[in-house]
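Subject: Interface between my chains keeps coming out wrong

I've been trying for a while to get a sensible model of this assembly. When I model each chain on its own everything looks fine, but I need the whole thing in one frame so I can look at the contacts. Pasting all components below, labels as-is. Any help appreciated, I'm running out of ideas.
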Amino acid sequence: MPKQVDHGKRRESIARALWRVVEQRGATHLSLREVAQEAGISLGQLQHYFGSRAELLAFAADLAGEQSALRVRQALSALGEAPHPRQVLRAMLVELLPLHADSRATSRMSAAYVLEALHDEEVRVRAGSGLIQGRALVEQVVRQAITGGLIAPECDPVVETDLLLALTGFATLLELGVVEPAAALAAIDRHLDRLFGGGTTGRRGDGVTG
Amino acid sequence: MPKQVDHGKRRESIARALWRVVEQRGATHLSLREVAQEAGISLGQLQHYFGSRAELLAFAADLAGEQSALRVRQALSALGEAPHPRQVLRAMLVELLPLHADSRATSRMSAAYVLEALHDEEVRVRAGSGLIQGRALVEQVVRQAITGGLIAPECDPVVETDLLLALTGFATLLELGVVEPAAALAAIDRHLDRLFGGGTTGRRGDGVTG
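Reply #2:
Try treating it as a single job with all components included. I did that and got this:
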């Protein structure tokens, strides 16, 4: 196998070791030594692949973002051709929440990276730009649904997109056991019912109410 | 002054030093030595007040919770006697978000504590129980609004409470500059419009629509 592939694979396996450290022991104590141990390599070997802690963290966070995006694409494929925008938005939200082992790992990695971003401008810009890209995708779906008459035309696509993204706040509530997975899904469905149905009754539908 | 007061005050000033470290340099590198330095005392002096890192973190997180609760009470007093439930819910949400310096400090402290909770069962239970208390307050206001005919009777108070709490997801979006404060407030108002008004048109009102 070409060396390039090995190098890329090794970097990915180190990043996944970092996720496991974050998931199991938390980001507070995160050190390169700990990640190297988890990856089963020496600190020197790790440093051959990542020159600094910041570089490794950025790579691991980017990989988490890519994995989330991949899971969303897979969930969308499973919906068949031309899925309903409501299903698309639901799939996006669900894959961002720590509802199963894979999304929990990426969700925790992202949370750790956000905390790192608070005191590091470079990380902040990087983490922010990833979120801004995701935001643009959600807004596109919302706008198409408004154009297609599935969401009431008087809805502001920017405001509705912000509200949908804010529901990722369920991550913390789920992690701390304040809200159970079924309750989070019920609440997301309720929000989508209102957005697409227009009423307070929780009825489903794709009609426009005024 | 009695020694007891000094002891309490000193503990609080150390906890606030910890907030500043979390706010300025992040929770990832948090060490007792760093907090002592920020508080202007020696590590030995700090350890006189807090026997362990876990004890200091728990105290600082509890203090952050108390400060948030105090700010909510102050915001509610400013609304006069018998404020509208909509205003009560808005005040609660707004004080939980990092929209000004005080709430940013407590919000970041809480985020750091949540990350710490992920790999420490004791911290998880403690952080969760704080959130469960806050959740109960929000649910009480939602239930009263339903009983009072301000929120449509077919709304499920548990689901609506979960949705309101999930909007604390704006904290991350604000911190990373993905959403501006004015946009977050507009989105919260939009959600409350729908909850209290019932329609998709964003009209305000306290009537019940079916």
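Reply #3:
Confirming on my end. DSSP finds ten helices and no strands in chain A.
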